[in-house]
Each structure stands twice: as C-alpha cells, then as structure tokens.
C-alpha cells in the first residue's frame, strides 16, 4: 500500500514546481511589491498552495532570499564578470556595462519595476541584499576601475568615479523603469536594446575623454 503524501508535500516534477513558485513570486513582487504579495497569491499563480511555498522555502523571507540569489544575483554577477575584460579601458568598460545591462533588462522585464520598488526606494526589502552582495562586485569594482583609469590619464579627472557609476545605472535603468511614461510623452522614441545602448554611449563618449588625450 502506497504511503499517503503529507499535506503540502509536492508531487510530480519538484524542481519545475519550485521554479514556477519563483516565477510567480518575481511577477508578484514586481507588480505590487514584496510586502503586498501574499504567499497564497503566489502559490495560486504557480498552481499550488501556501503549504507548498513553505515546503520549498520555509517562509516568505526565505523565498525572497532564494529569489534574489537564484534569479537576480546571477544577472548582475555576469555583468561584473564581463567588465573584467576591459579593466584598463574606460570607454570599453562603459560600453560593456551599458550594453550588457540593457540586454539583461530587456530579457527580464520584471527587473526594472522590482529595482524601483525594492532596491531604489527607501525601505525596499531587496536593498540590503543588493548592497551586500552586488555592491562590492559591480558598482564598487566599476568605480575602482574608473579610479585606476584616472590615475593612468585615460579618464577625465574631474569625474567622480562613484557618481559616474550612479549616472550609468540611472541612464540605463530609468528608460526601462519608465518605459510606459516615456512612450506617452515621446511616442516615437526607440526603447529597444540597440537604440538605448547607442543613445547612452553617444551621450557619454565625448565626456569620458581625458583633457590630455589629444
């Protein structure tokens, strides 16, 4: 006689069910925020029950941490890896940063609203995770690359490396986060990956030159 399944214990493809829960959590967190997202709603969107969420993650906080570690952190970590190829060339650093981040945002449309709600805004529940886990490997390291380039005379010495990183994130993130607003004001503006990357690089390229470059 088969042993009865415990309440909340999954059946079938467990890994696929877990991925569906993460998908549903990401969609809900991006749409209404983490605080307003209930485990019941997330579970129902994934075709399960709150007990199933508890089975896989233990708590809502653990679900949030798993989402960050498995869905968000790898995206930013990959951009950081790509930047290592151009550590001595500020224009190449900018090009890699802008093009890769634009691609990540286009391929992951839930990321821009989630960024605004839970990382950028005060009290966002992903802010501390982002600062501790992504801060050192992406924005802080990029600022270090810019500092080194300034010492080599390859980057405008009047630029603040940290603020340059902030400017880059803002220039890339804002068009994605405010896409519907921008379309309402500028209906003909191109918001695809190629158009956004081309515009940002054209805007930045001349201002990145060192006055001693010529």
Automatic annotation (TrEMBL):
<dbReference type="InterPro" id="IPR009057">
    <property type="entry name" value="Homeodomain-like_sf"/>
</dbReference>
<dbReference type="InterPro" id="IPR050109">
    <property type="entry name" value="HTH-type_TetR-like_transc_reg"/>
</dbReference>
<dbReference type="GO" id="GO:0000976">
    <property type="term" value="F:transcription cis-regulatory region binding"/>
</dbReference>
<feature type="domain" description="HTH tetR-type">
    <location>
        <begin position="15"/>
        <end position="75"/>
    </location>
</feature>
<dbReference type="InterPro" id="IPR001647">
    <property type="entry name" value="HTH_TetR"/>
</dbReference>
<protein>
    <submittedName>
        <fullName>Transcriptional regulator, TetR family</fullName>
    </submittedName>
</protein>
<keyword id="KW-0238">DNA-binding</keyword>
<dbReference type="InterPro" id="IPR036271">
    <property type="entry name" value="Tet_transcr_reg_TetR-rel_C_sf"/>
</dbReference>
<dbReference type="GO" id="GO:0003700">
    <property type="term" value="F:DNA-binding transcription factor activity"/>
</dbReference>
<feature type="DNA-binding region" description="H-T-H motif">
    <location>
        <begin position="38"/>
        <end position="57"/>
    </location>
</feature>
<dbReference type="Pfam" id="PF00440">
    <property type="entry name" value="TetR_N"/>
</dbReference>
């Amino acid at each position: 006689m088969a042993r009865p399944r415990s309440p909340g214990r999954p059946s079938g493809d467990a890994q696929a069910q877990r991925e569906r829960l993460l998908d549903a959590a990401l969609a809900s967190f991006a749409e209404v925020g983490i605080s307003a997202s209930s485990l019941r709603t997330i579970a129902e969107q994934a075709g399960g029950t709150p007990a199933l969420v508890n089975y896989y993650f233990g708590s809502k906080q653990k679900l949030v941490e798993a989402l960050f570690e498995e869905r968000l952190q790898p995206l930013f970590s990959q951009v950081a890896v790509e930047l290592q190829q151009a550590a001595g060339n500020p224009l190449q650093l900018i090009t890699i940063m802008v093009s890769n981040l634009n691609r990540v945002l286009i391929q992951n449309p839930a990321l821009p609203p989630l960024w605004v709600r839970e990382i950028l805004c005060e009290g966002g529940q992903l802010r501390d995770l982002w600062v501790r886990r992504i801060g050192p490997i992406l924005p802080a390291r990029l600022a270090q690359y810019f500092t080194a380039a300034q010492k080599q005379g390859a980057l405008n010495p009047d630029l603040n490396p940290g603020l340059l990183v902030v400017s880059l994130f803002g220039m890339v993130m804002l068009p994605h986060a405010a896409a519907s607003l921008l379309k309402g004001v500028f209906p003909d503006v191109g918001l695809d990956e190629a158009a956004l990357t081309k515009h940002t690089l054209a805007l930045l390229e001349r201002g990145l030159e060192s006055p001693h470059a010529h």
